[in-house]
Amino acid sequence: MDSEVRYPLSDDLKRIIAGENETVFRMVEDRFSVIIHSRLPGLRIEAKGKKADIQGALSLLDQVKLAAKSGTFLSKGFLSRLADDTSKHSCSKKSVSKPFIPDTPILRNKLGLPVVPKTASQAELVKACDSNDIIFADGPAGTGKTFLAVAIAVASLERHEAERICLVRPAVEAGESLGYLPGDLKEKIAPYLRPIQDSLAELLPQEKLRKYQEDGLIEVAPLAYMRGRTLKHAFIILDEAQNTTIPQMQMFLTRLGQHSKAIITGDSSQIDLGPRQVSGFAHAIRLLSKIQGIAHIAFPQTDVLRHPLVREIVKAYEHGGKK
């Protein structure tokens, strides 16, 4: 790699991605030991010392440029995750030349903002949906598995690739007894399905979501409702799948009909089943992930997108569990 390269960049994009006082360029310089000269047309990137990684800097700038073009808000956290992923692949000598930010967003949410992958694992999940009909997504809370899966499903419905969406969750309490819940069956199961409803509400305008649900184009249901059904031309999401038993997982997987696709999300480290029950999620991943048409995406701790402390909490509990 040359000790100095030119990076083509229009003045408009340069202003967008540079940040206030060119903070983005300064971050790239610090992370990859380079110097960025921005006064001339485009950018001139110069190596700074023996630890300089010009290829890594170019890869990160490629991803930031694509994110800016798609309308993604370049927050400090988003940029930091991009830099972490680029540094990780660079250190492992994997190719970093191919950005994971797509040219076009998955879809735009109800505010018109683009929904795009925010980590390499999220991008891997999106890509896996193109060539697989069953995708297992395993990772800690806060990595965006459920939200991204719902976004992919909604985009599929809006493009008329799927005739309906079926969003499913097992009704398992998280380590505590909720006791008797008042109301009819719909009201009783509502708390279990709330996270999926929240994702839908963030993606779709209220009236559009209500019409989709009234017309049966979007169905949110507990896992028990799947028994005896065959879902054709559907996009199905099973969330919190670590809380399924082996028979429940087998029952769910055999509901898949012609021209259907399923994303199964879960966190193998947070199983709320009884002490003698084996998770059908982990069992299915071991049993099925080598079958063609079935993919397994593992989300690492570093992909946690919630409050920065959540990542540290996940790490501490995992370390404590191993001890």
UniProtKB/TrEMBL annotation:
<dbReference type="Pfam" id="PF02562">
    <property type="entry name" value="PhoH"/>
</dbReference>
<comment type="similarity">
    <text>Belongs to the PhoH family.</text>
</comment>
<keyword id="KW-0547">Nucleotide-binding</keyword>
<dbReference type="InterPro" id="IPR003714">
    <property type="entry name" value="PhoH"/>
</dbReference>
<keyword id="KW-0067">ATP-binding</keyword>
<dbReference type="GO" id="GO:0005829">
    <property type="term" value="C:cytosol"/>
</dbReference>
<dbReference type="InterPro" id="IPR051451">
    <property type="entry name" value="PhoH2-like"/>
</dbReference>
<feature type="domain" description="PhoH-like protein">
    <location>
        <begin position="115"/>
        <end position="318"/>
    </location>
</feature>
<dbReference type="InterPro" id="IPR027417">
    <property type="entry name" value="P-loop_NTPase"/>
</dbReference>
<keyword id="KW-0963">Cytoplasm</keyword>
<dbReference type="GO" id="GO:0005524">
    <property type="term" value="F:ATP binding"/>
</dbReference>
<protein>
    <recommendedName>
        <fullName>PhoH-like protein</fullName>
    </recommendedName>
</protein>
